[in-house]
């Protein structure tokens, strides 16, 4: 069985590489189905161990294959964002954004490859996205709100971009260390610990 254990360092060039579409013939191959299972396993297993382990609830809401070094156009999204006891996990193969609304939402984002770093990103409120599922069935859907934000974050990954590239001031990304999480949650709006991520950014 294929297993994936490590996320890439934010300076890794694979995070800056465009992941190309997989052909439907390749998608059917056992080795690629096993890669999809390994990505799902990574999503479910991380920070979700021991007594609190809940196989049904992932702790990452999104993962793109190149974040863990798999150079295929695959991402996983949990559309039950912020619904603590539920999950709604989808595997999107060959996702492409066909249309974006001009209206945007500003939301706080984080990333598996940038632990403890957060920042507000403006993204289109609505998008149309095409993809196939792991069995090759094709879809075009309109995503709105959180789902739109999440899918745009993941498709950015597959196109070689990170959320920090879209920060209005990358010199002032929010820094929330693990030990500061409780303090941060008490008063997130007035958080004043920042980190400069500009050396990690790429221009859009
Ligand atoms: Zn990410």
Explain how this protein is built.
By secondary structure, the protein is of the alpha+beta class. Helices cover 20% and strands 28% of the residues. The strands form 2 sheets. The chain has a 5-stranded antiparallel β-sheet with strand order 1-2-3-6-7. The radius of gyration is 17 Å and the shape is globular. It starts with 23 loop residues before the first helix and ends in a 9-residue tail after the last strand. The mean pLDDT is 92. It binds zinc ion. The site of zinc ion (ZN) has 4 residues, from helix 3. Residues 111-112, 153, 157 line the site of zinc ion (ZN).
List keywords for this structure.
204 residues, alpha+beta, Peptide Deformylase, 5-stranded antiparallel β-sheet, 4-stranded antiparallel β-sheet, 20% helix, binds zinc ion
Poorly predicted segments: none
Query: How much helix, percentage-wise, in residues?
Result: 10-25%
Terminal CA distance: 37 Å
Bound molecules: zinc ion
| Total E-strand runs | 9
């Amino acid at each position: 069985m294929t297993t994936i254990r490590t996320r890439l360092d934010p300076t890794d060039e694979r995070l800056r590489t465009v992941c190309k579409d997989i052909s439907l013939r390749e998608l059917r191959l056992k080795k690629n189905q096993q890669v999809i299972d390994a990505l799902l396993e990574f999503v479910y297993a991380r920070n979700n161990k021991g007594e609190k382990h809940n196989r049904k609830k992932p702790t990452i809401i999104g993962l793109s294959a190149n974040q863990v070094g798999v150079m295929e156009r695959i991402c996983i999204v949990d559309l039950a964002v912020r619904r603590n006891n539920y999950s709604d996990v989808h595997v999107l193969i060959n996702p492409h954004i066909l249309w974006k609304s001009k209206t945007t939402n500003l939301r706080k984002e984080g990333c598996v490859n940038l632990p403890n770093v957060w920042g507000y990103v403006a993204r289109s409120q609505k998008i149309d996205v095409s993809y196939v599922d792991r069995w090759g069935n094709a879809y075009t859907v309109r995503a709105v709100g959180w789902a739109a934000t999440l899918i745009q974050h993941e498709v950015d990954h597959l196109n070689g971009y990170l959320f920090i590239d879209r920060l209005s001031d990358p010199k002032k990304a929010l820094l929330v260390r693990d030990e500061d999480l409780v303090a941060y949650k008490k008063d997130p709006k007035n958080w004043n610990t920042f980190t400069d991520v500009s050396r990690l950014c790429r221009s859009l």
